[in-house]
Amino acid sequence: MSIKGMTEKELFIQNRKHIFTIEQKVSNNELTINELDEIIPGYLHLNRIPDMAMTYVSPSGCNMYELTNEEMVNNYFELRDVYNDLDFIMKTSFSALVKFSTLLDQKSTFSFLQKTRRTKKHNFELFCTEVKLLPGNQELICISNPVSKLEITTYRLNGILKENKFFDNNFQKFMALTKREKEILKLIGLGYSNKGISERLFISNNTIKTHRKHINQKLDAKHLSDLIRYANTYRLI
Distance (Å, rounded) from C-alpha 5 to C-alpha 17? Predict the structure, then answer.
């Protein structure tokens, strides 16, 4: 399907795929934050766990809010009350976002909508924010884009990421796995037997069998090679 033919829901899913891959490329120094900042129509920011305080905002975010990075970081909570519709966030996504941040699952993503305004003179605009945990479990990497420009975001990020077809087609299946199921999938990919996984995770062999059954069902995996391919594609190993 072409980007032009995507629904808003499909664009949201596509952007969830992007944050998964972008975090890996930034962590591996394959893509810098400044390079990314020049591509997307929104902005990138880092937020600290557990209080969600902003620790960094990219140059385009500073330009949007007409503030310096230092002003944004040092006065985050005061500014948040002015530039964000907190009632909207509390009603729609706050509890789910907090739950996501406490799971400490580096192989999951989270997306939510928020209403923000560029300055006090502007009206609130709907933004889609994609979130992923950074290695170290201390910060979230977030990309916030205007919903009205998600199509542009998808087009530009597709151009630089060029993900393979298997990754693209099976992303939703992989994201349906729980943190424990991903942990077991990783060990399967590394060659551990059920007994080896059981001993490593200190859970019974029957529990491992149940987890593997659920993993196979969610991924529609028929063979061990299918599971290894998932583990490789989504960078578990």
Answer: 18
